[in-house]
Amino acid sequence: MADNLSQSFDKSAMTEEERRHIKKEIRKQIVVFALMIFLTLMSFMAVATDVIPRSFAIPFIFILAVIQFALQLFFFMHMKDKDHGWANAFMISGIFITVPTIAALMLLLGVNKI
Asked: Taking the model in full, what pTM does it have?
């Protein structure tokens, strides 16, 4: 049991397959993060410039927000992992409570008049 203490941590803790998997996962997260930055810049450019017509700017930003929300859920909140069942259940139930609440508040406050 004490024989493993003489080895360095990276050699004793992970196999080569685990290291490759972690590197692949880090690479995916960096790519998704860069994609989210790009989506944010696209939404900023939609508002800052007149490239996109004003009537299409709000739906365009909303579409980008939904895409970014889905990417964040799957890659950073680990919704794609199978061993996060309870966390997934709570996040999904939170979405099902939040969306109707926001829609009801928008209707009550008259925000839907553009």
From this structure: 0.64
Q: Interhelix angle for 16-48 vs 54-71, to 10°?
A: 170
> Which helix or strand (DSSP H or E) is residue 67 part of?
helix 54-71
Give the CA angle between residues 58, 63, 64 to the nearest 5°. Answer: 100
CA-to-CA dists, residue 20 to 14, 23, 25, 87, angstroms:
10, 5, 9, 26
CA 13 to chain centre: 29
Q: What is the CA radius of gyration of the chain?
A: 22
Residue 25, amino acid: E
Determine the pLDDT at residue 47: 85
**Domain chopping of the chain, boundaries:** 2-76, 81-114
Query: What separation in angstroms does the CA of 56 have from each of 39, 41, 69, 106?
Result: 16, 17, 20, 20
What does the block give as tokens for 29?
Answer: 């997260």
Structure confidence at residue 68 (pLDDT): 92
Written as six digits, the tokens of 75 are 């890659």
